[in-house]
Amino acid sequence: MSNQPSSEPYIVVDVETTGGRPDREHIIEVGLARIQQGQIQQTYAQLINPGTTIPSFITSLTGITNQQVQDAPTFDQVADQIHAFLTQGLFVAHNARFDYGFLQAELDRSGYSLPYKYLCTVKLARQLIPEISKYNLDAIINHCHLACPNRHRALDDALVLGQFIDWANQNFGSDTVNQAIKTVTKSVSIPKHLDSQAIDNIPNQPGIYQFIGEQDTPIYIGKSLHLKDRVRSHFTTSANLKDQQLYQQTKHITYQTTAGELGALIRESEQIKSQLPLYNRQLRKPKLLTVLLQKTNQNGYHTVEIQRLKQIDNSQLAQILGVHKSPSQAKQKLTKLAKQHQLCPILLGLETPSKSGCFSRHLHQCQGACLGQESAVSYNLRFTQTFYKHRVQSWPFTGPIIVTEQSDIWHEQHLIHQWIYFGRITTDKQHQTTDTQLSTQQFEWDTYKILSKHLLSTQFQSSVTQLSQAQFDIYLQQLT
What we know:
Strand order of the largest sheet: 3-2-1-4-5
Helix content: 25-40%
Structural class: alpha+beta
Distance between the termini: 73 Å
CATH class of the largest domain: Alpha Beta
Largest sheet: 5 strands, mixed
Low-confidence stretches: none
CATH topology of the largest domain: Nucleotidyltransferase, domain 5
Number of helices: 17
């Protein structure tokens, strides 16, 4: 019986989250450790700003507060670091379906994919120690006499898994442990009705993919920087309900490569809106947009007006404080901001005007702007600071621009001005135009979110070329 651990590196993983649904909740802490032959080679621990409030029961469990994550990076800001770490070895987690599902969801939002193979230590423990009644992490810690100084903190919980594998090697021998790992390691399982060779032939390049169902109807459209990995990840045995349904209903898969991430994001958004696939409900364009517009009342206080619009007019961009899918969603957001920043519900359009002021004033949660007890200057400053990150940012260039993305096969040039996507021109290596695509030439909120994320990031500045009006007209003529 050999006690020597496997030479294959593995990454022990734990995440803390705001809840249990990867499609709705977000990660607040990531803990990773790279272990090889029983030795910790590298660790990574990072608090994450989830962009939402941490529920009190999560704070009670983990000790992580809203204040602690307030200045932490968002997941998107550290996604490249986390992805690079996770690709250095076998993904290992306790109840791995949970951690894998959350990390895949967060990475997917940032354009990355996880390797489609992982090890769940719950299932490994069941193979090795079937005599115990529970397999949660506390039970494993107690049974194996492991040390975890800060339970429910990501890195400590991850490192316990390394201890468990060491304990298993010492007590059962590495041959037995390696065989058990091989038995329970989850990998990809391609449905029999799909051509696995066709999936293997998908390139690991940026692009979009379509899952096609009955009658050649697209049922899901996605994008990724690594097409093959992302497509295969839908068919892991960690699959959520949506992926299980895709597993059963997909008849074949098509894909289209792009020169870069921006092209993939734009194409995904365009095709979801035009084809309305069944399993892309969240990204579909609503018939009417719920728009929050900034107004100013006769007393000089900033107010909010909720309007339902088919299309946002360019002249309204400076007034927009946010766009939502429904009035109820907009009011929920305003209610949350009012409580967080002591803004007046009456001025936000959440309550009808009253001589006695808003209800929040009686709870000392409004500073009295509705009664003139707080000056307009003071209130408007707090109002502006509150909505700054939600409103349409000023166009950061002096005029129109071209964003160029390059691959080994072609170049794509994206024509953009005042957050409006006009279209793209695709050329081959010899700079011969192979395709042009004219867009709607209207302001769209989803497109704005895509463009602002890219164009306000320093890493994309080198791909931007500013155009004169004459150059812009020439490019526009090529598109039309």
